[in-house]
């Protein structure tokens, strides 16, 4: 039997990068091992998440299935939602699309500026059992968790927020002053987080300006994490560190966050980029580029 070759897009939102498959006409399910091999940056294509665009059972524009680099499936990815929103808007010719995800229905719409997309991520979940946490906390703005000696912890009392996936945010004076690559793996799987968590270091350096560094669950250090940016915007506003409208600066660039008071929804706005088109042999996992990206106006889902 001949092996199957499938086309894909390589995209990123502020450096948070994805391989995108169009599986609306031809279903695609890959094992976690295959996903991890494709996601390996040394031997595979390399990505933070793998995105599979499928038909929506609810009749909206598409369903977005998300797998992390390690092959595990997750419910939400804000930057990927912006990227898929852009593709669907260009394909359908609309300025607003609805995407079904494991975290619910998300709305993406065109935003001023080339390749800018805004996503309505819905309301944050801030109760301990919604995040979820393994034990009850009356106030999730600062939960009991620390790294280091009891009397002199290195990191302590993070805020906890769920934006489709769990986040823990440590407020620090310098996001580069801590070895997040060492602490991240320990905290990601800490027993207080029964579903694991994304771990962030955040610093408010000017009025409504936040610097953010993220260890992403199932991925590691990442240039950008959209749901982490949303979570830190909510956490900062809850703790009166900022207003409800902030700019979050990630290694991959800035992203605008607004936590609307009118309906409790979080809006996220930032750039999207198509890096290149490619194809993969699903038996050998050999892949090659077949076209360039935004420089040549590539814009189809497949």
UniProtKB/TrEMBL annotation:
Annotated site residue numbers, Could be important to modulate the pK values of the two catalytic cysteine residues: 167, 216
Xref: InterPro entries: DAP_epimerase_AS, DAP_epimerase_DapF
Record pathway: Amino-acid biosynthesis; L-lysine biosynthesis via DAP pathway; DL-2,6-diaminopimelate from LL-2,6-diaminopimelate: step 1/1
Keyword Calcium: no
The protein's Enzyme Commission number: 5.1.1.7
One MF annotation (Gene Ontology) recorded for this entry: diaminopimelate epimerase activity
BP terms from Gene Ontology: lysine biosynthetic process via diaminopimelate
Main EC class the enzyme belongs to: isomerase
UniProt-annotated binding residues for substrate: 16, 49, 68, 78-79, 165, 198, 216-217, 226-227
Keywords, sorted A to Z: Amino-acid biosynthesis, Cytoplasm, Isomerase, Lysine biosynthesis
Predominant subcellular localization, coarse grouping: cytoplasm
Protein family (similarity comment): Belongs to the diaminopimelate epimerase family.
PANTHER family: DIAMINOPIMELATE EPIMERASE, DIAMINOPIMELATE EPIMERASE, CHLOROPLASTIC
Functional note: Catalyzes the stereoinversion of LL-2,6-diaminopimelate (L,L-DAP) to meso-diaminopimelate (meso-DAP), a precursor of L-lysine and an essential component of the bacterial peptidoglycan.
Assembly behavior: Homodimer.
Entry protein name: Diaminopimelate epimerase
Organism: Roseibium album
Lineage: Bacteria, Pseudomonadati, Pseudomonadota, Alphaproteobacteria, Hyphomicrobiales
């Amino acid at each position: 039997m001949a092996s199957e070759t499938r086309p894909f897009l390589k995209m990123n939102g502020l450096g948070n990068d994805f391989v995108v498959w169009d599986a609306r006409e031809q279903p695609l399910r890959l094992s976690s091992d295959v996903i991890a091999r494709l996601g390996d940056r040394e031997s595979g294509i390399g990505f933070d998440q793998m995105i599979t665009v499928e038909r929506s059972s609810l009749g909206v524009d598409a369903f977005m299935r998300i797998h992390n680099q390690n092959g595990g499936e997750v419910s939400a990815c804000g930057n990927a939602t912006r990227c898929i929103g852009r593709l669907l808007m260009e394909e359908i010719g609309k300025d607003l699309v609805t995407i079904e995800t494991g975290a619910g229905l998300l709305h993406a719409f065109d935003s001023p500026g080339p390749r800018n997309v805004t996503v309505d991520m819905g309301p944050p979940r801030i109760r301990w059992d919604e995040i979820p946490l393994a034990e009850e906390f009356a106030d999730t703005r600062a939960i009991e968790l620390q790294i280091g000696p009891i009397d002199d912890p290195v990191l302590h009392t993070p805020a906890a927020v769920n934006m489709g996936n769990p986040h823990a945010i440590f407020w620090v004076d310098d996001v580069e002053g801590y070895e997040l690559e060492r602490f991240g793996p320990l905290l990601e799987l800490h027993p207080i987080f029964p579903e694991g968590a994304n771990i962030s270091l955040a610093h408010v350096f000017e009025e409504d300006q936040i610097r953010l560094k993220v260890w992403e669950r199932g991925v590691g250090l990442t240039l950008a994490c959209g749901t982490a940016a949303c979570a830190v915007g909510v956490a900062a506003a809850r703790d009166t560190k900022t207003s409800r409208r902030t700019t979050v600066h990630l290694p991959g660039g800035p992203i605008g966050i607004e936590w609307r008071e009118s309906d409790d929804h979080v809006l996220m706005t930032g750039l999207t980029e198509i890096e290149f088109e490619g194809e993969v042999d699903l038996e050998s996992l050999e892949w090659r580029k077949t076209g360039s990206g935004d420089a040549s106006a590539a814009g189809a889902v497949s």
